[in-house]
């Protein structure tokens, strides 16, 4: 009679073949996973970030033949979720969402309890969330060039709306002002609906926000997109230029999220999970769902995520210092 382990290995092999095609046998980690995997999410349910995680979890469960449970632990700037992860065994069965917000926090807080490069072990990026520069449809600003010119020539009369001090959107606006030499004022709001209402009322002239929460107003004609802040044009907005094209070299900013494990999780397990998730993110149905939500699915190796995290930590440390944002 076949052992439980051999049956599990056969099941995993069949699942992988069915979902992704033939793989190198070395990719299989015998015995892993043999119980449910938990993904701790450091924000509340809902929103495009949560959509990415839940869609990935659903597909990952089918791929590995085990339940993948999404556990939302919002609050305290990601500290609650981080504590949960650090209390977990480094065996690959507990993961946590991370991303650029986590890379920013050490520069925002006087006392941040984690060394994210030592306490967390990288698995893979999940998705990038392009940031759009938008105006009300009634705005006289018609192009990205119009925006850049007015920000430079009449920035003292320009308010740029974003969400939350310290968010990627807020810091992208601060970075824009620094590189463009603009005296514009950045106005943070508590939520995207507040930002949209301020744009429509004319309280702020321009908004920096991720695409997902803006889709309905963009499609309804209430908001117009002038540019995106990442290096490449957005797939679903091929006619919208980047700030680089508009005249700000090297301006490449997007929000992103990722998966990490507790420090000490074996690299073989993290690489296995990375391969599975990367394959999921390349599935046509997954790409379609996420692109339509204003999200660009993009996986990575653990090593590439290490490099991205280090780069983002340093980049935002400099931006925060230049902007004079006091640590909380």
Automatic annotation (TrEMBL):
<comment type="similarity">
    <text>Belongs to the UPF0065 (bug) family.</text>
</comment>
<keyword id="KW-0732">Signal</keyword>
<dbReference type="InterPro" id="IPR005064">
    <property type="entry name" value="BUG"/>
</dbReference>
<dbReference type="InterPro" id="IPR006311">
    <property type="entry name" value="TAT_signal"/>
</dbReference>
<dbReference type="InterPro" id="IPR042100">
    <property type="entry name" value="Bug_dom1"/>
</dbReference>
<dbReference type="Pfam" id="PF03401">
    <property type="entry name" value="TctC"/>
</dbReference>
<protein>
    <recommendedName>
        <fullName>Argininosuccinate lyase</fullName>
    </recommendedName>
</protein>
<feature type="signal peptide">
    <location>
        <begin position="1"/>
        <end position="28"/>
    </location>
</feature>
